[in-house]
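Subject: two folds for Thursday's group meeting

Dear M.,

Sorry for the delay on this. The cluster queue was jammed most of the week, so I only got both jobs back this morning. I'm pasting them in the order they finished. Each block is the input sequence followed by the predicted structure tokens. Could you check whether the formatting survives your parser before we put anything on slides? The first protein is the one we discussed after the seminar.
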Amino acid sequence: MEIKELHEVLKGMLADVDTFCEKHGIRYSVYCGTLLGAVRHQGFIPWDDDLDLTMPLPDYYRFLAEFPAEMGDKYDLVTFRNDKYCRITWMQLTKKNTTFTTRSRIDLDTNWGIYVDIFPMIGVPEKNWQKRLQTFMIQTAKSMVRMEYLRHIHFQYAGWRKINLLAYCLPRSFRLWFADMVEKHFWLDPAAAAKMGTVDGAMFIEKYTHDQWREFIPAVFDGLEIKIPRKYDDLLTRMYGNYMQLPPPEMRKPHFAGDVLFSTDKDYRQMRKELNGETQNDTAR
């Protein structure tokens, strides 16, 4: 896989999101490694193979509801509600007629299109016991959602925390109900809280203040003009420490490595069929 080819697709996806959000007044920001790349590299981190965005919770829900009607011919929005083997509690924007996964995963019947992660930014309650409860419930919901995927790939759960072991034994209907309940009651509107955090792959904690996300400035991202938070230095220091320093060479690796399957014009389901056909033919011989 040529990572520059992947970057071009992701940049096109970012341009479409930016255009849609500007048109409909939906707030968003590049986030995590994408924000770091915008500041340190004026584009993608050269070895990075994904793109991260965040939206305040009300905007996140508007995007989820309104984007498919306008852009559904090009994209899918994947959540644990519409994809049985979805491994996340946030949403992914995937481009139709593309593939990005590994040979060892392609047989799993989930959406393997080229994707952008979109994380909801939610409010954090003031009292310490409420913060601890919110964190516990959000982490538990993540464990609940990913169990179908882990069960399918025969993940060895020895050594897991008890919460993961419990989730592994529960029926899918209960796990979906639980994740829905957590989203309804523990994903708080950030406008009603002093501090905020994002529901993503890390442990949920209060990370940010409103002041850090209030104002945005233009930035160039691989030739595309986007907006980033004016206080990006505060944010990136909070995330990465001395963020302008490059990591050592041995850490400059993409998330996907090894037997990568990648296509900018072939649907992952078609690629799966072709690969399985080749396997069957090889077996017959």
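Second protein, same layout:
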Amino acid sequence: MLLSYKDCVEKYGSDYQIKKEISNGALFLKEKGIYSTRKHDPEIEVILYKYPKAVFSGKSAFYYHSLTDVIPDMYYLATRRTDTRIKDSRIKQSFLNDDLFEAGITNMDYNGSTIRIYDQERMLIELMRFKSKIPMDYYKEIIQSFRKRTYEMDFGLVEEYASLFNSGNRFMEMIQMEVL
């Protein structure tokens, strides 16, 4: 279980007791201000604990949804435009307006961790939005994965998400031509 410094002070009483628990092997320092009762915690859980308002998007979401087998080189997180900039070399942050940020957020079980992530319908729109910035072979792999999933996707939801963007009609035309 992950704990903040404040949680540790409440549980163990003082900074001295926290250090004592660490030296006894009952508590482990994961990062500055983040402690754990387990020796090994997945890094994704530490990221989620550290940035609870962020949502996995981009290459991370494509990978976690099994749309690609390319493991992302960093964690891609989306936050609100008004949120603080994340200064962590492991994270690539994107800022979104509130109306765009909320659309498509879901919880997903990934290797025993519950993560906040955009659903696959929203990720299809994101793929169309950033088509020109994505390498062609990577794009083709993801498009192929979406083609295999057409019967399990809610295209009414895709249209709803597309309508939030200025180029929504163009995105839907692209989806019609490339996915359906």
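Two things I noticed about the second structure. The radius of gyration is 19 Å. Residues 29 and 162 are 43 Å apart (CA to CA).

Cheers,
T.
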